[in-house]
Design goal:
The chain has helices spanning 16-29, 43-53, 64-70, 85-95, 109-122, 136-146, 180-197, 294-306, 316-335, 341-351, and strands at 5-10, 33-39, 60-61, 75-78, 98-102, 126-129, 153-161, 201-209, 221-228, 233-239, 253-258, 262-266, 269-274, 281-285, 339-340. By secondary structure, the protein is of the alpha/beta class. Strand 11 (253-258) and strand 12 form a beta hairpin.
């Protein structure tokens, strides 16, 4: 059995607490990885991480640069705001550490492309945790679509509507930023759509707005159409100011129109429907089971990759396509134009070469 790998966890407050309690302890239980340091600018957060990760006072740092300089690590875990991701990646590259990062790669397409170039040129491995795609219900739907039992996939419909119209009801900062629906919400659903369709996006057109009752500085609603590189057509509705929450976080709605059946995922229930035989047949599919889902599963896959296993489905090479779709959708929303996503990615990647 391989010796446990060593990691430095950067960002242990906020969502970093989820990593400290629900993700990283499992790596130790599996004998895959152990922490050698935790980093956060908040001493109180570091105090929690000390006991949660089993660290000593000497292993707690307020500066990532100092932690990486003083502690030998195989990889770092990044759970800080996206605007700081590139700075953390630069430190990892300097010290030859692999990278497991929360989404997105960075807060701009240019920064995403710079990170992509730096990591690839350094010969390092990086994965990005887009947790919702790897939840139990979406994975079950993806596996059913790709099983071949229902023939070819023609189109996908996605719907996610929430009652988060009041200021701070979706976290204060999301109500203050530009494009909150796309940047903080739809990015996850774009990743799910890529997985369900089995392809990257070719084109995207996004119409976004904020109704008078939406207490947001940016657009909180959107209707988005996509064509994937394999010809699958997609329509997505996102609404953060609905009068009622129809499909909140983790309770997504997706409908897949296949050649032989319609597959509908709604609030964690998957139905397979067809009346091609003359009368309607509806079958409820039991969700797939395995020991872990979302980030706990992705962290395990990442460490196995570092140990010589197969690349996980959320590598940097995969996730750059998700970022390209996100920022192309933002450009579409701002310009009113249909954006060729692959051309958008090539242009932005070339600009930082």
């Amino acid at each position: 059995m391989n010796k446990p790998l060593r990691y430095i966890h950067i960002g242990v407050g906020g969502f970093g607490q989820h990593w400290c309690t629900a993700v990283l302890p499992r790596l130790r239980e599996l004998g895959l990885a152990e922490p050698v340091a935790a980093v956060d600018i908040n001493p109180d957060a570091l105090g929690k991480a000390k006991s949660q990760l089993g660290l000593s006072d000497e292993q707690l740092y307020t500066r990532a640069a100092q932690a990486l300089a003083e502690r030998e690590a195989d990889f770092i875990v990044i759970v800080v705001p996206p605007s700081i991701h590139e700075e953390m990646v630069d430190l990892a590259v300097k010290h030859g550490c692999h990278i497991l990062s929360e989404k997105p790669i960075a807060d701009t397409m240019a920064a995403c492309c710079r990170i992509y170039r730096k990591v690839m040129n350094a010969g390092l491995k990086m994965a990005v945790t887009m947790s919702h795609r790897f939840d139990q219900d979406k994975q079950t739907l993806e596996r059913e679509i790709k099983s071949g039992r229902y023939g070819r996939l023609s189109s996908l419909i996605g719907r996610n509507t929430w009652n988060c119209r009041k200021f701070a009801s979706w976290g204060k900062y999301r109500h203050e930023i530009a494009d909150p629906l796309l940047v903080e919400g739809t990015v996850h659903h774009f990743d799910i759509i890529r997985a369900l369709s089995g392809a990257d996006a070719q084109t995207v057109y996004a119409a976004t707005w904020n109704p008078p009752w939406g207490e947001y500085a940016g657009d909180s609603n959107g209707l988005i159409t996509m064509t994937m590189t394999n010809g699958v057509r997609v329509f997505y509705e996102g609404n953060k100011t609905s009068a009622t929450t129809l499909n909140g976080w983790g309770r997504d709605y997706f409908r897949a129109e296949c050649e032989l059946a319609t597959l509908e995922l709604d609030n964690r229930r998957l139905r397979i429907m067809s009346d091609l035989g003359g009368e309607r047949v509806v079958t409820e599919k039991e969700l797939a089971r395995q020991p872990a889902w979302t980030n706990a599963w992705l962290a395990e896959l990442f460490v196995n990759w570092l140990n010589g296993g197969a690349p996980p489905p959320n590598t940097l090479d995969d996730n750059i396509q998700c970022c390209a779709l996100l920022f192309a959708a933002v450009e579409s929303a701002h310009t009113g134009r249909v954006i060729d996503v692959q051309d958008f990615l090539r242009t932005n990647t070339s600009a930082v070469a």
